[in-house]
Amino acid sequence: METRQVRAGRDSILGYVERASPVDILAELIWNALDAEAMNVETTVAVGAMDAPEEIVVHDDGHGMPHD
Hints:
By secondary structure, the chain is of the alpha+beta class. The protein has two helices and two strands; from the N terminus they run H-H-E-E. Strands 1-2 form a two-stranded antiparallel ribbon.
């Protein structure tokens, strides 16, 4: 099991996606959920025929952002 430290900052995923690892990006999505006061965060990884991740879904119950 790998542990990564995450911190809030001005960078969004799009700002550093080229230099970030998949683990860094996933950590950012989870941090965003926690920052939105989520009590539950569920992460699902769909693995394809070549044993590689094909889809990653992060679902949470945080308050999120207003639509406007």
